[in-house]
């Protein structure tokens, strides 16, 4: 039995436990076991009943999320929901033990009271009042026929009846329809001796006709002749606790900010929909991502960004209200939409257009007129035997492909394309080990002057000699390394090896022309690019004017890449542009930056692009030389020579080879 504390003592006790709870929420790894123990301790304070537990949960649920130490909300919301549930669980367990202890104590006391009733009725009633009257749980003394003999104040409060109204009433008349048989069967088991105590969830009728959700525990009292005498029934009002548990469960499966289901709940429903889907129409799963959401958050603040997320959630619900759809918020600015298709379900393109058309209409949030678009990865009509985790991964893969193009795009997942991408990923992740084992080497190919065929430079390239597999050339190696981030250390290694080789040739008088190294987009934008180049040149002894570096044209609009190019040019490095001619801004890039050369994109070389040929006079006026890559025939070489190109590389002039092979290729034939 709990002894209520004074106000000051209670405040001190609760303050200490609140501090302990906050500390537990920060613990790593996070565990709810200690929080359950904390909940159990609350029963000893003597103040926390059904209303107190509900108020405690409401205060903690709102108050903890507002504390600075639990920001951002997304990081701690799940922990706080689990903690409140654990607190309720601990309290419930301890309270249940208390109920059982009370019941056992009452049983012993009542046995003695019944045995002594013939001698001292007053003493019997005093004992009953001592044990029963002060209990916060309802207590009923029921005869063998099932009629109520005595009740306490608590059961009167629960059911809304007075004690006079309850005495003499059949217990089964107070049970809600549909639950009577369960209670009768259990009480028959008590009389028959097959059970010593029963405990079950019950529904009892209040005076106003509403059903109260209760936990009912009953045991049998026997007289001196060991014959059944009375039933002792203890009733605990579980309405508030059940509602609290239901709310905690809802919070654990829903996003706090938008109220939408979260990823966990969505995954469960996705599995259910897969198994029950109409094979004629199937389901469609959209993985949506808000474009440029980071820009919104950084510019107008987190509060406005959160309200924008709420706006997107509401608009998605409105737009898909006519469909059998489930909308969930995943992480950050990502949403999931599960459509169970019917004969009238619009096409994917129609749905995406309606979403983007609606979201691109400005909405005003705290005075800011905001409009966004969404990109999407779509899985359409997957196999009903598919696993939800595989569909989530597939949609995410399709989303990444969609966002590689431009904003507001969508792409449907294709298994064949995914299989090819997985093979590429397998090769890419094996690359570091291959580099360590010496399978990746540096090769050299000649750069010739188209006017006379003289070798005017050497280009360094990667080559991967894969055991029992195809050999990968420089473009393939660079693309794989770019995808994993390996390109930064691997690219610096290529530059160091090639610069050292070029310096060695110069010292021996074997080859003294420019060394050309092509950079990827990631390398070009690397904040440490200039430092890497200066360090390598210092280590190898190669002069800045003896090195030529080229960057992809597509990356130069980015300030980091353009800044790197300008600084390198200022140091004396010959800088150029690769894949020239693919973008409409390429000519202006040449005039805006200190570019010395351009290399025409290989696809345009093969097609003998008249557009690029028309730009040749402009390049000459700007003092920029033009190189073409991928020349494989004399006819191609003649065409580009006539068009005004200055230099060329390709199989016609020699493939990439080892240092010795490159030098032998320079010897007169």
TrEMBL record:
Coiled coil location: none
Protein name, UniProt field: EAL domain-containing protein
Pfam families: EAL, GGDEF, PAS
Residue ranges of every copy of the EAL domain listed in the record: 424-669
InterPro entries: Biofilm_reg_signaling, EAL_dom, EAL_sf, GGDEF_dom, Nucleotide_cyclase, PAS, PAS-assoc_C, PAS-like_dom_sf
Domain named PAS: residues: 124-194
Domain PAC, chain residue ranges per copy: 198-250
Residue span(s) of domain GGDEF: 281-415
Superkingdom of the organism of origin: Bacteria
CDD domains named among the record's database cross-references: EAL, GGDEF, PAS
């Amino acid at each position: 039995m709990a002894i209520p504390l004074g106000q000051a003592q209670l405040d001190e006790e609760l303050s200490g436990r609140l501090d302990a709870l906050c500390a537990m929420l920060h613990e790593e790894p996070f565990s709810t076991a200690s929080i359950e123990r904390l909940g159990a301790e609350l029963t000893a304070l003597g103040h926390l009943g059904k209303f107190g537990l509900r108020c405690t949960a409401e205060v903690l649920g709102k108050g903890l999320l507002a504390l600075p130490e639990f920001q951002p909300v997304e990081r701690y919301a799940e922990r706080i929901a689990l903690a409140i549930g654990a607190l309720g669980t601990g309290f419930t367990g301890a309270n249940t033990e208390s109920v059982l202890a009370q019941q056992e104590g009452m049983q012993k006391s009542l046995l003695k009271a019944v045995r002594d009733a013939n001698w001292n009725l007053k003493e019997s009633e005093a004992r009953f009042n001592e044990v029963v009257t002060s209990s916060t749980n309802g207590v009923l003394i029921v005869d063998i026929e099932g009629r109520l003999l005595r009740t306490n104040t608590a059961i009167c409060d629960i059911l809304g009846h007075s004690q006079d109204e309850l005495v003499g009433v059949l217990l089964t008349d107070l049970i809600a329809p549909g639950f009577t048989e369960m209670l009768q069967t259990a009480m028959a088991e008590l009389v028959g001796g097959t059970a010593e105590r029963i405990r079950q969830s019950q529904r009892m009728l209040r005076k106003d006709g509403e059903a109260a959700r209760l936990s009912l525990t009953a045991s049998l009292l026997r007289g001196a002749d060991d014959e059944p005498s009375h039933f002792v029934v203890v009733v605990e009002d579980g309405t508030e606790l059940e509602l609290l548990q239901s709310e905690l469960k809802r919070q654990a499966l829903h996003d706090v900010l938008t109220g939408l289901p979260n990823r966990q709940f969505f995954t469960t429903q996705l599995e259910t929909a897969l198994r029950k889907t109409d094979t004629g129409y199937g389901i469609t799963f959209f993985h949506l991502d808000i474009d440029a959401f980071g820009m919104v958050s950084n510019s107008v603040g987190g509060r406005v960004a959160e309200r924008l997320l709420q706006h997107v959630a509401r608009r998605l619900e409105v737009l898909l209200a006519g469909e059998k759809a489930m909308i969930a918020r995943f992480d950050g600015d990502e949403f999931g939409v599960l459509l169970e298709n019917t004969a009238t379900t619009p096409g994917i393109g129609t749905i995406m257009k309606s979403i983007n058309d609606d979201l691109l209409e400005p909405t005003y949030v705290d005075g800011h007129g905001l409009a966004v678009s969404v990109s999407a990865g779509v899985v359409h009509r997957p196999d009903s035997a598919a696993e939800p985790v595989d569909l989530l991964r597939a949609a995410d893969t399709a989303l990444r492909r969609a966002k590689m193009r431009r904003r507001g795009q969508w792409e449907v997942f294709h298994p064949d394309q995914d299989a090819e991408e997985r093979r590429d990923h397998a090769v890419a992740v094996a690359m570091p080990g291959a580099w360590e084992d010496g399978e990746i080497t540096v090769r050299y190919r000649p750069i010739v002057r188209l006017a006379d065929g003289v070798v005017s430079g050497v280009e360094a390239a990667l080559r991967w000699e894969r055991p029992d597999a195809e050999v990968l050339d420089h473009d393939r190696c660079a693309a794989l390394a770019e995808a994993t981030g390996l390109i930064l250390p691997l690219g610096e290694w290529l530059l160091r090896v090639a610069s050292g080789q070029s310096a060695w040739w110069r010292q021996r008088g074997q080859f003294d022309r420019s060394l050309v190294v092509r950079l990827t987009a990631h390398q070009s934008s690397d904040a440490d690019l200039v430092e890497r180049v200066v360090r390598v040149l210092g280590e190898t002894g190669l002069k800045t004017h003896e090195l030529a570096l080229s960057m992809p044209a597509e990356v130069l609009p980015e300030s980091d890449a353009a800044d790197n190019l300008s600084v390198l040019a200022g140091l004396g490095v010959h800088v150029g542009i690769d894949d020239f001619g693919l973008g409409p801004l390429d000519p202006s890039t040449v005039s805006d930056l200190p570019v010395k050369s351009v290399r025409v994109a290989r696809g345009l070389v093969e097609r003998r692009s008249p557009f690029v040929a028309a730009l040749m006079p402009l390049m000459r006026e700007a003092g920029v030389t033009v190189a073409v890559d991928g020349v494989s025939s004399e006819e191609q070489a003649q065409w580009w020579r006539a068009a005004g190109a200055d230099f060329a590389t390709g199989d016609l002039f020699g493939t990439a080879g080892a240092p010795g092979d490159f030098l032998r290729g320079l010897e007169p034939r």
